[in-house]
Design brief:
546 residues, five-stranded antiparallel β-sheet, 9 helices, alpha+beta
């Protein structure tokens, strides 16, 4: 056969193959490009949703009340769909069609969670979209004739209800190691927690006030007022007031006089020597001590083997198997304030199991109603679960969009670390004597004098809209951030070390060092603030301290 013939045969065979391969490679490139684009837009839309929720809750003092919370979540969901619809509009998907590709949205809250998705309306026998009922982080425990439920939370608070030791109990409270609490003095409102004296404290922050005409009164700079918290609301103290508003609410950026005599009696009793005090930290540790002592006595022998599902079957699929370790035997080896405690391992396992089960069911509902795509719950990484079980979090899912040779299937999880729903161990900021703001685990403040510790939410910039072209901005607390820990995010140690009183870190030579910080102003102020901020949070029931 002549060489020319071979060349022709080669071209006839190879050219189509080359064209097919080229087309295939180009299709794969386009698919990867679309996948990257959709992932980026999903992340941006989820960030917009969590930001909307954060802004709404920070500026709404009733954000923890159920109806208000639902409105904030629904507004956040609307923001997500508006944002995603706008971002994907150029890719041929409009906002109205997005419900077909968003099988679920998850809102992790303080003591439970909401799932947005498709559900069956029994009255119309049709499927529709919306928020499903609130689901608590619950686990049932059975021990002999005892049968009770424990509702967990994102911190060390639990609610217990059911038959325990022959009687029906309903109790709530924060769990600590009760052996660490000594010297309770009810008259002086002092006690000792693990060597640190917890006592009344003076709290203060800056605010900007408007008069009745909507004009700024303190035009030069914000004015600092002392405050205390009464039933989740701050009451401010102005001893030099000439308008009769010595004690006032801060409502719509104006003074609102307090007339309720019970409230006035309370704040008057908290005013000593010309200063308004808060006793929230003392009450937190005192009530936690009492509740934890009761839990030790009545629930101290409960283990995972006592856990049951609602049908009475033994639960064996916990994320962490703690075996026969006693979940509620509170001691130095099981301190609920520390991450690695048996209590926390079980708390996290209960939350994970509940979310995974109900979220999988919600997404599976998208396989009802004629969809040709099989919606399934993705497998979360341990990093994802760490976000979901430790803070207020939004998780979104986008599935079933055709992109070239495959379907898009991805999710996004973003944590809201500045909120008024929960106070985590690392959501407190520290103010040192030089007015600088630090994370509580900053190496630079181990030897500093600490003058205040507050929730990170209270360090956010506040805005007051005066007119279309005029806004006033201010910070309730200092805003000079430490470069090393808050900007550069370096030179820190573990938060458990601060709580336990022994920190480990590497020195400049790379050598591991251990240091006892019990008795330092940092640890005393931090533990005081942790108790105060958790005690002052809105509570969804009246069983705390019972």
């Amino acid at each position: 056969m002549k060489l020319q013939h071979l060349a022709i045969i080669f071209v006839i065979i190879i050219l189509p193959i080359t064209m097919v391969v080229t087309q295939y490679i180009q299709t794969q490139i386009d698919t990867i490009g679309l996948q990257t684009t959709y992932t980026s837009k999903l992340q941006n839309a989820t960030y917009d949703a969590i930001k909307a929720f954060q802004i709404n809750t920070i500026n709404n003092k009733y954000s923890s009340v159920s109806d208000s919370k639902i409105r904030d979540i629904e507004a956040s969901i609307s923001t997500f769909f508006n944002s995603l619809g706008t971002k994907l509009g150029k890719n041929g998907i409009d906002q109205e069609a997005l419900n077909n590709y968003v099988p679920a949205m998850l809102y992790v809250m303080y003591d439970g969670y909401y799932i947005y998705g498709k559900y069956r309306n029994e009255s119309t026998s049709s499927y529709q979209y919306g928020l499903k009922p609130y689901i608590y982080y619950s686990c049932r425990y059975v021990r002999g004739t005892d049968d009770f439920v424990v509702n967990y939370s994102l911190d060390n608070a639990i609610t217990v209800y059911g038959n325990i030791d022959g009687s029906y109990e309903t109790r709530s409270g924060h769990l600590i190691d009760p052996s660490l609490v000594t010297n309770i003095n009810e008259a002086n409102k002092t006690l000792v927690y693990d060597g640190e004296t917890i006592e009344r404290e003076i709290l203060s922050e800056q605010i900007v006030l408007l008069n009745e005409a909507g004009e700024v009164i303190n035009t030069s700079s914000p004015v600092t007022y002392q405050y205390t918290v009464y039933q989740n609301a701050k009451i401010y103290y102005d001893p030099g007031a000439t308008d009769g508003m010595t004690y006032f609410w801060y409502t719509d950026n104006k003074k609102q006089r307090i007339y309720d005599q019970d409230i006035l009696n309370y704040v008057t009793s908290m005013t000593i020597g010309g200063n308004l005090y808060s006793e929230s930290a003392f009450q937190y540790y005192k009530e936690a001590y009492e509740f934890s002592t009761w839990v030790n006595a009545h629930m101290g022998d409960i283990t995972q083997s006592n856990a049951r599902d609602m049908d009475g079957n033994v639960i064996s699929d916990f994320a962490v198997n703690t075996g026969e370790e006693k979940i509620f035997r509170l001691s130095s080896s099981n301190n609920p304030l520390l991450d690695g405690s048996t209590f926390n391992e079980n708390r996290i396992s209960v939350i994970r199991r509940s979310i995974q089960s109900n979220l999988a069911s919600a997404i599976a509902n998208y396989n009802q109603g004629g969809s040709s795509y099989e919606f399934v719950l993705p497998v979360f990484s341990e990093e994802d679960w760490d976000k979901l079980v430790n803070n207020i979090t939004v998780a979104t899912f986008l599935q079933g969009i055709p992109i070239g040779t495959k379907y898009f299937n991805n999710y996004c999880i973003i944590t809201n670390d500045k909120n008024e729903e929960v106070v985590t161990e690392d959501s407190l900021y520290v103010i040192t004597q030089d007015g600088e703001v630090h994370l509580p685990t900053c190496m630079n403040i181990l030897d500093s004098t600490v003058i205040g510790v507050y929730s990170n939410v209270s360090f956010e910039r506040q805005s007051i809209h005066i007119a279309d072209d005029y806004e006033v901005h201010y910070y309730p607390h200092a805003n000079s951030k430490c470069y090393h820990c808050m900007v550069n995010v370096s030179a820190t140690y573990d938060i458990d070390g601060l709580i336990s009183g022994t920190v480990e870190f590497f020195d400049s030579g790379g050598n591991n060092q251990t240091r006892n910080i019990k008795g330092s102003s940092l640890r005393k102020q931090y533990l005081t603030a942790l108790g105060r901020e958790r005690y002052d949070l809105y509570r969804t029931n009246d069983y705390f301290g019972v």
